Amino acid sequence: MSNILFIEPNTLLAQAYTKGLRRDGHIVNHVLGAQTGIHAADTQSPDLVILELELPGHNGVEFLHEFRSYMEWQEVPAILLTNLPPGRVGEPGDLAMQDLGIKAVLYKPKTTLQKLLRTVREQLALS
Amino acid sequence: MAGLGDSTGKAEMNDLLLSVAEQLKVPLITIARQAELGQVTGSVDISEIVAIQTQADAALTLVDSYLLGLELLREQTSLALEPVSVSSTLVDTAHDLYRYARQYGIKLELDVAGKYAPVMAHPHGLQSALLSLGYALVEAQAVQEDGDRTLLLAAHRTSHGVVAGVYGNYPDVHAEQWHKALELCGRARQPFAALSSGSGAGLFVADAILQAMSTRLRVGRHLKQVGLSTTLQASRQLQFV
């Protein structure tokens, strides 16, 4: 059983993903934005982070910079689940992505629940 | 907004269309994932059906409002404005918005106390603009991290006319940001980041409809709340009735 921090600004969309992840045996802590994401990480100690880049206020990249500045969260894998089209986001192998600990990038319109669950399992197995 | 016939007007409508298309992804993804969840689990809760329904309604409202805005801008020179009750329009908007707001855990409040003279507007246009604005602000209020879950639909009188708007707890929203957002509509992914994590298309669609009625959407205040509102001219003819 793994702790997942899920940062998604749309509550209804988050409900569908959260139900699927919980059904797969994970403990999911859903928050709406970057600021509450940091607070949630502090209390939850996540094993994995799933986040949207486009957030109200501070964006996903700003969240990851802040998140990675804490020693205990530097190795926690992050999955981008985003509305940004593939051409607008780099690849997980890119240097900037590596620095932020981004292990996978999923484009929301093309990502089924099953694909998300598979990616989560893979990343948890690797970490 | 420039006329639809000239190149500036067409470019603005194209920007608005891009914004609408981007915004539509959100309800469609939600519907797709909810349906997939139902398929995987083999059962669907009534709450999931309601979520699918409200997302479909939101998408339809956005498309419908966009098309109405386009239509009204085309007819702008001959647009028939008629006396409309702002209070009734706000009450109807609140009614139409209720289920969507509840889905996001947002409480709606109405402040239409006081007698307001009828205003000159396109009835369907005004209702659509306020509804489009309402949908966008429900989503905006739902991501506020301060826990405030109330949205206020209100009217008040000024020396310029009757102001109708939708307000919430948005302390960081200023007129300058809104003006910049109007320029960035369709060109930036988050043109109004202080309010919307997405394209915020509903706000720009509402503004386009109001422009066809020779008014605009502006950042305004009602009591201590901040939001977007429009000033409507009172119908002089009916003021004397």
Task: Give a brief rundown of this model.
The complex is a heterodimer of chains A (127) and B (241). Chain A has 127 residues and is of the alpha/beta class.
Description:
The complex is a heterodimer of chains A (127) and B (241). With 127 residues, chain A is α/β, with parallel strands linked by helices. Chain A has a single domain (3-126), classed as Response regulator (Rossmann fold). Chain A is built from 5 helices and 5 strands; from the N terminus they run βαβαβαβαβα. In chain A, β3, α3 and β4 form a beta-alpha-beta unit. Chain A starts with a strand and ends with a helix. Chain B has a single domain (1-241), classed as 2-Layer Sandwich (Heat Shock Protein 90), CATH 3.30.565.10. In chain B, the strands form 2 sheets. Chain B has a 5-stranded mixed sheet with strand order 2-4-5-7-6. In chain B, a hairpin with a 2-residue loop joins β6 (218-222) and β7 (225-232). Chain B starts with 6 loop residues before the first helix and ends with a helix. The interface between A and B is medium-sized, with 27 and 33 residues.
